[in-house]
Amino acid sequence: MLMLLESDIQIWSVDLNLDLQQVAAFRQFLTAQEQQRAAKFINPTHGNRWIVARGYLRQILSQYLDLTPAQIAFTYGQQGKPELDGSQLQFNLSHSHDRAVYGISAKYPIGIDLEYIHPLPAADLVDRFFSPTEQAIFHRLPVTEQQAAFFHAWTQKEAYLKACGTGLSTSLDQIEVSIDPSTPAAIISAPTTDIWQIQKLEISPDYAGAIVIGGDSDSTQQSLHERIEYKQLQSPESISTATTRGYP
């Protein structure tokens, strides 16, 4: 079984494009409610990716808990954030296009966001959802940098909201973050006085991402860069092997 120190954070990254036999194997881990949710996707590819993302979540968490993937039970906060029933282990996940990321923390609240970079009306979205200060910084950037700036900022805001567990009940313009994509992630202003650390995720050039961790004065003496360990899964077999080592 994998062990975490109080300050440890582990990030798992997976490819969601698996063959139908592997998708069926992951489906067996899911509850009836989860399978019903997967069936609601109109596009079968999107439904299969959701099944794989959820199946990987259960299999990853099983490495930290004395449970099989199918035995893991979730509870949900008021805004729908999943939590583990009967464990202080904290986790969060995000999936976009064909990748998923999972953040695991021993006890501190965690939020993670991943977005596939694709063309969109970045300036319109910034003017609609970002603060006046952020809008001014964004519009001073060269047009060639604005799409990257949008995803850089959006993922920070989403990761913060997911760590807080408030979801979109908190307006995005209440959270001011780093806009320039050449600068590190940073929470400049937020509606709470809690202690948060934030870092940009370096998963793939095709994706933008961010992770936010809550904590206290002791846990934040180390930078997130020092606390994070990245774990890459190449296939379901690779995690199955890891899970087997946890259950001799």
Supply the CATH architecture.
Alpha-Beta Complex
Pick out the low-confidence regions: 239-248
What is the SS-derived class? Answer: alpha+beta
Instruction: Please outline the major beta sheet.
Output: 4 strands, mixed
Tally of alpha and pi helices: 8
Descriptive account of the structure:
By secondary structure, this protein is of the alpha+beta class. The protein has a single domain, classed as 4'-phosphopantetheinyl transferase domain (Ribosomal Protein L22, Chain A). 36% of the residues lie in helices and 23% in strands. The protein has eight helices and eleven strands. The strands form four sheets. Strands 4-5-1-11 form a four-stranded mixed sheet. It has a three-stranded antiparallel sheet with strand order 6-10-9. A hairpin with a 5-residue loop joins strand 2 and strand 3. The longest helix has 22 residues. The protein starts with 8 loop residues before the first strand and ends with a helix.
Give a quick rundown of the structure.
With 248 residues, the chain is an alpha+beta fold. The chain is 36% helix and 23% strand.
Overview features:
single chain; 248 residues; alpha+beta; Ribosomal Protein L22, Chain A; four-stranded mixed beta sheet; three-stranded antiparallel beta sheet; 8 helices; disordered C terminus
